[in-house]
Amino acid sequence: MRRPNTMSQVTAINQAESAAVSAAANPVASHLQSVVVVIPALNEERSLPLVLGDLPDVGQVIVIDNGSTDRTADVARAGGAVVVSESQRGYGAACLRGLATIEQQINDGRAAPEIVVFLDADYSDHPDLLPRLVAPIFMGQADFVLGSRLLGEREKGAMPPQSVYGNRLACFLMRLLFSARYTDLGPFRAIDYGKLCDLKMADENFGWTIEMQIKAIFAHLRYLEIPVPYRNRVGTSKISGTVSGTIKAGSKILYTVARYGLRRGSM
Questions:
Q1: Are 169 and 120 in contact (CB under 8 A)?
Q2: CA-atom Rg of the chain in angstroms
Q3: What is the mean pLDDT of residues 27-31?
Q4: Residue 5, in any domain of the structure
Q5: Mean pLDDT of the chain
Q6: What's phi and psi for 123, nearest 5 deg?
Q7: 36 backbone dihedrals φ, ψ, rounded to 5°
């Protein structure tokens, strides 16, 4: 099977186009009740109130407590979020628990969301920009929207050099192997719920974000990136804040790219 030709399907919008998306975000405000936000969290009691406070009024916020030893779960509930626990440590494991929660709610009679937004709990992203992320999906322009930190403005120190170079390397490899035109692996992203289910996400750790992006290529999803600002997180990063965390995350990301690169002829 030939490698998928995605060049005609991929749209990487520039700053001017991003402004148009921002202007178009207001008309989607009435649709935000069909959005579910999934937030993995590990010991983020200081940052979560800020994240939840800045989010617009959406249908539901699900915080996955990934084994916190502080008051993460308590402050999440106080902020109006649905809190579920996932004892298996790992970013992907927490996200999968969030998706399992949505599925269970649908089985119990709750309406399925139109869009799922993934957002970190550390307040490095800007939750109030969520309407900009979901607008292209509601307007029928995309299935998957990624907030690119490398296209946006970053506070000094918000992304350490190893994160910047690691992201660029991963995106270069995806372009080389899959003709993908990503600039970032940013966690702030929105995706059509039905399309997300079709991707059959499986990674339980650091490979979650890049798995989604590669599978989006193979599924021929319409995707685009919009620039998003990025600030220094509250507290210390569990990944880029330590040498071991950086090595583990980088190794898993490169492994995921290589694994799907070897499989691309059969997908």
A1: no
A2: 17
A3: 83
A4: no
A5: 88
A6: 70, 20
A7: -115, 130
217 located within any domain: yes
Cα-flanking dihedrals φ and ψ of residue 145, to 5°? -125, 125
How much is the pLDDT for 264?
Answer: 66
For 74, the token pair is 């308590």
Distance of alpha carbon 139 from alpha carbon 158, whole angstroms: 32
| DSSP β-bridge partners for residue 62 | 38, 82
**pLDDT score at 253:** 83
pLDDT tens profile 180-213: 999 999 999 999 999 999 999 999 998 999 999 9
Contact in structure between 39 and 121 (CB atoms under 8 Å): yes
Number of separate domains in the chain: 1
Sign of CA pseudo-dihedral 27, 29, 34, 39: positive
189 and 145 in contact (C-beta within 8 Å)? yes
The CATH number for 33's domain is 3.90.550.10
Per residue in 212-234, pLDDT (tens digit) is 999 999 999 999 999 999 999 88
Amino acid of residue 196: L
On whether residue 4 sits in a domain, the answer given is: no
In a domain, 190, yes or no: yes
Tell me how long the chain is. 267
With 80 as the cut, is the pLDDT of residue 18 above it?
Answer: no
114 and 28 in contact (C-beta within 8 Å)?
no
CB 35 within 8 A of CB 61: no
What is the model's pLDDT at position 1?
47
* Domain enclosing residue 67, as ranges: 10-266
pLDDT at 204: 95
Residue 147 has which token pair?
């907030």
> Residues 265, 189: contact at Cβ < 8 Å?
no
